[in-house]
Fold these 4 entries.
Entry 1:
Amino acid sequence: MNLGRNARTMLVLALAVAASAVPVFESAARSRRPPPVEYAPPPPPPMGPIGLSDRLLADAAAYQAYLQRVTAITPAFTDGASVAQALRTGAAYEPAAFLRGAVAYAAVAALQDAAFVAAVRAPGADADARRLMVNRIIADPTYVFAFRGSDEAAGLAREALGGAALRLYSAGKAVKQSAYDVQRQAWSKETIVDRSGRLAAVKAASQSGLAPATDQVIALQRAAQGLASLGISAPPARPPYTPLIAHALQLAALAALGEAGDGAYDRLTYLTDEVNTGLCLNMAKLNLYQCLAVAGPHYEDIFCMGQHIMLDTGACLARNAGVGVPLEVAPAPLRVPPPRPVASRSARRRR
C-alpha cells in the first residue's frame, strides 16, 4: 500500500521536473539558432540602351517626310487643280506636331556625335549619378553644353533643322515668284471655286497633325543608336545657342543615358515644345488663313502658299535654329525719267 503511494508520488515529481525543464530546453534551443541572414539590396538597374522612344521617332519621321513633300513643290502649276493639291500638301501640318518632330529629329542628329554620347554616358554608369544627371539635364538647359562634344552635337542639330529650313525657304521663293510669272496663263486669273470650302479644308488639314511616315522610323532608330548615318555633316556650333537647339541636346543627352524610352514620352513632351518657334509657326498659320480668305484668282493662292506655308515656315525654323535667313531682295522700282523743265515765255522769245 505504502509502496504504491510512494510510486505515484515519485511519478508525479518526475512529471513536474520534466515540465519545468521544457522552457529551459526551448530557451537553450533558441540561443543556439543562427543569426538572421542579411541579404544585400538588389543592384540598381543598369543604364538603358541609347535611343529614343518609338513615339518620338515616329514624330521625327513624320516631320522629315513633311519637309521632303513640301520642299518638292515646284512652280510648274498647270491649272487650278494642281494649285489646290499643292496647297493641301503644304498646309497639312499642325504647329505643335511640327515642332515636336523637329526637336526629335534634331536630337537624332545630335546623337550622331559619338564623342558627345560617350561623354554623357561615362558618369551615368552609377545609378545615383545617373539619377542626378537626369534631374539636372531636365532642370537646366545649359547643363548639356558642359559635356565634351556638345559643340559638335549642336552643330549637327543646327544643320539638321537649319539646312532643311533653308531648302524650304528657297523653294518658297520660287513658288512665290511663280505667282507673278503664271499670270501670263489665262487659267491663273480664273476665280477660285468654293473659296470658303477651300479655306475650311486648309484649316482642317492644319489641325490634323503630320501624316505618319512609318517607312522612315527604322532608319531614324538606327541613326539614334549610332548604327547608321543621317548623312548630315556640319562644323561645331559655338554659343550662344537658341532654346530650340538646347531642347534638342537635352533630349539627345537623355537618350544617350537610356532615359528617353517609351515610358518617358509623356514626361519629356515639354522638351519638344519651344515658345518662340511655336509662336512663329502659329503666326505663319494665321497669316495663311487671312491670305486665303481674301484670295480670288488661282495665282493669289500660289502667292499665299509660297509666302506663308513655305517662306514663313522655313524662316521660323531657320532663325530659331540659329541659322541666318537670306534677305529677300525687293524688285527695283521703275525708273521714270524726271519731266523736262518747261521754259518760260521770255526764254522762248530769246531763242
Entry 2:
Amino acid sequence: MIESKPLKRAPALIQFSKDHHFSLLLAWKIRQGMRLGISAQRIADYINFFFETYLNDHFKEEEELLFTGLDEHDDLRLSAEQDHRDLHAMNEEIKLQPGESLLTKFADRLEQHIRFEERFLFAHLQSSLQEHQLNSILEKMEALHPAQKEDDWKDTFWTRKNGL
C-alpha cells in the first residue's frame, strides 16, 4: 500500500485556508440552524451578512492574487471561477426567496467548492507558481489581513441557547 503524505501548505496559501475554515463553519451553521428548526429567513440573513462581509473579499482575493498566476484556460482555474459565480448566484437567490432546500444546496455547494480548492487547486497552484510569485502573494495577504477577522453577527441561531 502506498502512503501519501499530506502536502505541506505554502505560506502564501495559509490565510486562504484559514478563510476556508471560516467558510466551512458557515456551512455547518446553516445545517445546525436547520436542525434546530430556525426560520430560513434568519439563516438567509446570516448568509447574506457573511457573503458581504467575508466571501466577496475572499473570492476577489483568490481571483486576483491566485488565479491570475495560472493560464486563463487552466481547467482548475476555470472550475474555481465558475464555482464563485455559482455561489454568488445562489446567494442572490437566497436573498430573494430563502427556503430550506436552497439553504441546504448552498451549504453543500460551498463545502464542495472549499474541498475542491483545498485538495486540488491549492496543490496545483503550489506546483505551478514560482517561488517569487508565492512570496508576492504572501506579502499582499499579510498586508490585507493584519489580523484574523472575527464574526460579529449577534444572532447565533446555530447554538441551542440562541436558536430557540
Entry 3:
Amino acid sequence: MLGAEKIGEFAIWYVVFLFTLTIHEGGHALVAWMGGDDTAYRGGQVSLNPWPHVRREPFGTVLVPILSFIWSGWMMGWASAPYDPAWGRRHPRRLAAMSAAGPAANLLLMLAAFAAIKIMLGGGAFVAPDNAGFSHVVGVPPGTPDGSLLYPAAFTLSVALNLNLLLFLFNLIPLPPLDGSGVLQGLFPATAGRLFDALSGNPMLSLLGLLVAWRIFGYIFGPAFGMLLALLHPGVSYS
C-alpha cells in the first residue's frame, strides 16, 4: 500500500515519464513527417498530446510504469512511433535523422532540466544534498517549510534530469531495436543497414538486443551520473 508521500512521488514520476516519452516519440514522428513519411503523423503522433502514444502502447506507457514504480521506486516503459521501412530504405539519411531525433529530444530536455537546477542552485533555492540519488540530485535549504513547493520542484527536476540522461544514453546504443541501430542503419545502408534490417525483423533477436544493451548500459550510466553530479556540485564528493 502506497502512503501519501509515495503517491505524490508516483504522480510526479508518471507525469515526467509520460511527458518525456511523448517528446521522444513525437521527435521521431515529426522528423519522419518532415522527411516524407506520414505514417506516425496519420496516427496523431506529431503532437504533444500523450494519448496517441498511450493508445498505441498501453502496456509500455501505463501498466509497466505503474508496476515498475511499485516494485522499484522508479519507472521503466516504452512507446513507439511507426514508420514505413520502405521509406527508410529509399532514404537512409532521413532514416538516420528520424532515429536520432528521439535521443536528441531527450538531450534537449536534459539540458533544460540541468539549466533550471543550476539557476536554482545559484539563487540559493536548492542546495547540494548530503546523499545524491536518481530522484535526488538537489535538496532544499535547511529550515525550508514542509509545505514549500521547493520540495516537489527539486524532486521533479531531479527525475527529469536523470530520466532523460538515461533515455539519451540507452537509446543511442547501436543494437536493434534501439535508436542507435537506426542511426547506423541510415548512415551505412550497404553494411550495417542490411544487417540491422534483417535483425530488427526477428522479435527474439530484438529482445536479445535489449538485454545486451541493458547490460552495456550498466557500465555507462554510473560514470555519466557521476560526471553530472560533478557539474552540478563542483567540489562536492559523493561516494
Entry 4:
Amino acid sequence: MESLGVDSSFPCHAFLNRKTLIVGDVKSGKTERTLKLLRSFIASAIHPIGVLDLAPEKISGVGGKIPLSPQERAHIDYFSPLIVPPRLWGKTPEEVFALATENARRIEGVLHSVSWEKYRVLFINDISLYFHTQTVTDLFWAIEQVPTILMNGYYGRFFRPGDISRREREQMDALMEGCDQIFFLPGRAG
C-alpha cells in the first residue's frame, strides 16, 4: 500500500490498474477531488467509465452527489440509487440502522445488476455509506473485474460514535488495506 500526498497534477496513468481511495472528514473536499480526477479520465482515451454515486443529496452542507454537467454525463455510465443520510435523519439507533439497511439494499441492487466487467475505470463516490451494514469483501466481490477503481469515503470525527460509525470505520480501515494508494484530505473549518 502506498500513501501519497494530495496532488491533482497526477496524470491518469498514475491511477491505472490500481485501487485508489480518497478519505477525509465532512467538507474536506473528497467529492471535489474525485470530480477533478473523473474529468481527467473523461478527457482521456481511457473508456468506458462507470460512476457509482452513493452520496445522499446535500443536507445542511453534508453529502452531495458528484456535480456533473449533462455533457460530462454523456461520456460515462452513471448509477445513483436513492440514498438517505441515516445519522442525520434517524432519531434513534434503531431508525439509523433501518435507514442504513435500506440504503444497503438499494446499493446492492445496483452492484448486482450492472455488468461491471465492461468498465476500464470505476469511480465510487461516498463508499463509506455502503459500509454501514456491508463489508469490503462484499464490495470487492461485486466489482473485482474492474481494473481501475477510484473511490472516496468519509473518515473523520464529524458523526458521533455509535454502531454504524464504528462499523463504517472498521470497514474503511479494511478498505485502506486493500488499496494501492490513499489520499488523506485535511478537514476544513465550518
